[in-house]
Amino acid sequence: AVSWLIFGTLYPAYSSYKAVKSKDVKEYVKWMMYWIIFALFTTAETITDIFLIPFYYELKIAFVVWLLSPYTKGSSVLYRKFVHPTLSSKEKDIDEYICQAKDKSYDALLHFGRKGLNVAATAAVTAAAKVRQALTSRLLRHTPA
């Protein structure tokens, strides 16, 4: 787990930082391809983690090393041969789906936001009424007759 964290996430994150800082477009593109492959792998991994494969973690580390290696250029190979062509052919559909999801989530956010504000306002009014009632009864108890 520590190796995965270091080699799969921290080292690539730091290398990405260095690429952005140096403004080296080649390095930048290389690390963007890595992160795209890494995100897809991490997503697929949530499904494959349920299978008990012998040497699973060792294979995972080997895969990340293969992705990172400047000799194998694994993330570049996977990106150029599989990910880019697939995303290019489905880009319009994906963009449309994302746009619909954004619209639906915005509508849902407004709906739940209104409900949340109504609940909060009701709670505030109820609390204020209770405070007022408590203060009134306290004042009446301490008022000389």
Overview of this protein structure:
- Keywords: Membrane, Transmembrane, Transmembrane helix.
- It is a multi-pass membrane protein.
- The protein has 145 residues and is mostly helical.
- It has one domain (2-105).
- The protein is 88% helix and 0% strand.
- It has 4 helices and no strands.
- Helix 1 (2-22) packs antiparallel against helix 2 (25-48) and helix 1 (2-22) packs parallel to helix 3.
- It is elongated, with a radius of gyration of 28 Å.
- 7% of the residues are buried.
- The mean pLDDT is 82.
SSE-based structural type: mainly alpha
Unreliable stretches covering 5 or more consecutive residues: none
Q: Report helical residue fraction.
A: over 70%
Query: Mean pLDDT score, rounded?
Result: 82
Shape: elongated
- What is the count of DSSP helices, taking H or I runs of 4+ residues? 4
Beta-strand percentage? under 5%
Largest sheet data: none
Q: From the alpha carbons, calculate the radius of gyration and give it in angstroms.
A: 28 Å
Count structural domains: 1
What is the H/E order? HHHH
Instruction: Count every beta strand, where a strand is a DSSP E run of 2 or more residues.
Output: 0
End-to-end Cα distance: 75 Å
Subcellular location: Membrane
Protein name: Receptor expression-enhancing protein
Pfam families: TB2_DP1_HVA22
Main location: membrane
